[in-house]
Amino acid sequence: MKPKKISGYNMIQASTRRWWPLFLGPVVAAFIIGFVWPFIQGIYLSFCQFKLIADAKPIGIGNYIRAFQDASFTHAFWYTALYALVSLVLINVLAFAVAYALTQNIKGSNLFRTVFFMPNLIGGIVLGHIWSMIFDGILSKFSTSIVMDSKYGFWGLIILMCWQQIGYMMIIYIAGLQAVPEDMMEAARIDGATKAQTLFKVTIPNVMPSITICMFLSLTNGFKLFDQNLALTAGQPIVTQPGGTTIKTTEMLALNIFTTYNNSSANAHGTAQAKAVIFFILVAGLGLAQLAYTRNKEVQQ
Predict the structure, then answer these.
(1) Alpha-carbon torsion, ordered 120, 122, 128, 134, to 10 deg
(2) For residues 146 and 233, is the Cβ–Cβ distance under 8 A?
């Protein structure tokens, strides 16, 4: 009886089944050590009073009660929500417009792509300080600065974020625009569709996967903004409410958590940890809801 031949494909499958723990194991271990365990520990600490982790003392939901009663946290939530909404719309509209223009066979399109993408390579702290000097130079004519007026601070953060993120989103939109089936575009031209009709009826529906990704990134980045907020305004100006509570009018959620953690009160660390858990639930919930909504709009090619 002749021995059974083993094909190369079967040999690869057998080798894969044998050695996969060697390659997957370190990745799983790193994920558990770097994310899962700190996340579980963070949830536990949100129910504790502590200065050091080793001295954590469970106190129930007191930290969450203090977090929701904190007027600065409530203000930071609504301020961040407004900021995330405005930046989401502006970044995606402008990024799509730039991507659409750069896929129309204009001269120097590759150079323009590089120029628009470059701001994304600069760190947030550096960007914040650069734009702080720019804005203060402009606003000095009005005897004010970026940290003296919450209106200027808000739009300063919007401009900074748009300048940094539009180029990155543009690259994703360009990839989506280049993937639109040419036969569909040709059919639209043959049927006499105008450029506007082709854009809204053919191009945009086929670019929905890119829109889904860009909207998710814009939304989560807007809520998670920290270093630019710290460098540009540091949450200022500060307003004192009638009850004596002080609120930093341009402070966003991430910066509010950071400020709370560095407070000198006994419950500061626990309250900040509770705010961080609330922050995670908020961003994760909104991100998943947005993904579910926009994915239903995607066209199956």
Answers:
(1) -90
(2) yes
Report yes or no: 228 and 128 within 8 Å, Cβ to Cβ. yes
Q: CB-side exposure of 136: number of CA atoms within 13 Å?
A: 11
Residues with pLDDT less than 70, the chain: 1-16, 299-301
Peptide bond into 205 cis (omega under 30): no
Q: Are 270 and 45 in contact (CB under 8 A)?
A: yes
Taking the C-alpha atoms of residue 28 and residue 153, their distance in angstroms, rounded to an integer, is: 42
What's residue 66's pLDDT? Answer: 92
pLDDT tens-digit map of 17-47:
777 777 788 888 898 998 899 999 999 999 9
Minimal CA–CA distance to 88: which of 232, 200, 223? 223
pLDDT, one tens digit per residue, over 63-115 is 999 999 999 999 999 999 999 999 999 999 999 999 999 888 888 888 888 88
- Separation between Cα atoms, residue 298 and residue 288, nearest integer Å: 16
Please give, one letter per residue, the 3-state secondary structure of the chain: CCCCCCCHHHHHHHHHHHHHHHHHHHHHHHHHHHHHHHHHHHHHHCCEECCCHHHCEECCCHHHHHHHHCHHHHHHHHHHHHHHHHHHHHHHHHHHHHHHHHCCCCCCHHHHHHHHHHHHHCCHHHHHHHHHHHHHHHHHHHCCCCCCCHHHHHHHHHHHHHHHHHHHHHHHHHHHHHCCCHHHHHHHHHCCCCHHHHHHHHHHHHCHHHHHHHHHHHHHHHHHCCHHHHHHCCCCCEEECCCCCEEECCCCHHHHHHHHHCCCCCCHHHHHHHHHHHHHHHHHHHHHHHHHHHHCCCCCC
